[in-house]
Amino acid sequence: MTTKRSDFFIDGKWRTYATDTVDIVSPNDGKVLSRTPLATAAVIDAAVCAARQAMADPHGWSRLQPAERAAKMNGLADALDRRAGDLAAAVSSQNGMPISIANGLEAVFPQTLLRYYAGLIESFDFEEMRPGLLGGSTKVQRRPVGVVAAIVPWNFPQALAAFKYAPALAAGCAIVIKPYPETTLDSDILAEAVAEAGIPPGGVPMVWSSGGSSGGAVEGLVLEHGVEDVAATAC
């Protein structure tokens, strides 16, 4: 068994908290591959606060020019390209996906989405003037709304995560990613790529939680209060 780090990727760094764990079991042979720490309320609070602070930072992700965000997103795609084989192997080992499918989808699709949205925002009008209904003109501004929570299922963890974080990052939003706790090996690799690409700290925190009665699960907090409300009360 490979023992997984007991850390969570928060504020651009691996941070350790004392938490319970869950086994990652191979569906191929039933062996335990690793262990995943389960986020408590304190961990979720820290992740959301880091993302919210990244949104408020005058030099943070939301304040970068679209071309700057596009460059970082392309850099993230390049970093994932360099880890494509490791991503495919991690996904295949933890959820039983045939390696041929993992190589053709999980190791490729996230980069495709990142590059698509990076290209989109380079030519997108985030501010424009429109004729007013009763004369004059109206300025229309498109701004990031805040912190996004992304709950990712187990079956296509990289592709489905990218469907969430690529457009959120393109819009200038920070995003807290919560992978399924028993399929998190690929998330470690994604976190390494995020750090290498120079995404500002707090832009993409990652936490793993099984939900339940702790009160700190992303699902429960966000569904009940909304992610910005959670951040406002926790930070």
Report the radius of gyration as a whole number of Å.
18 Å
Mean pLDDT: 84
Strand content: 15-25%
Helix-strand makeup class? alpha+beta
What is the rounded distance between the termini?
37 Å
Q: What is the third-level CATH name, the topology? A: Aldehyde Dehydrogenase, Chain A, domain 1
The helix content, as a percent range, equals 40-55%
Helical element count? 9
| Dominant shape | globular
Largest sheet: 2 strands, antiparallel
- From N to C, what is the helix and strand string? EEEEHHHHHEEEHEHHH
The CATH architecture can be named as 3-Layer(aba) Sandwich
Low-confidence stretches: 212-227
Total individual domains = 1
The H-level CATH homologous superfamily, spelled out, is Aldehyde Dehydrogenase, Chain A, domain 1
Quickly name the level 1 CATH class. Answer: Alpha Beta
SSE blueprint and pairings:
Layout: E1 7-10, E2 13-16, E3 21-25, E4 32-37, H1 41-56, H2 66-82, H3 84-95, H4 99-106, H5 109-122, E5 127-131, E6 137-141, E7 148-152, H6 157-171, E8 175-179, H7 185-197, H8 218-225, H9 227-234
Helix pairs in contact: 1-9, 2-5, 2-6, 2-7, 3-4, 3-7, 5-6, 8-9
List keywords for this structure.
single chain, 235 residues, alpha+beta, Aldehyde Dehydrogenase, Chain A, domain 1, two-stranded antiparallel sheet, two-stranded antiparallel ribbon, globular
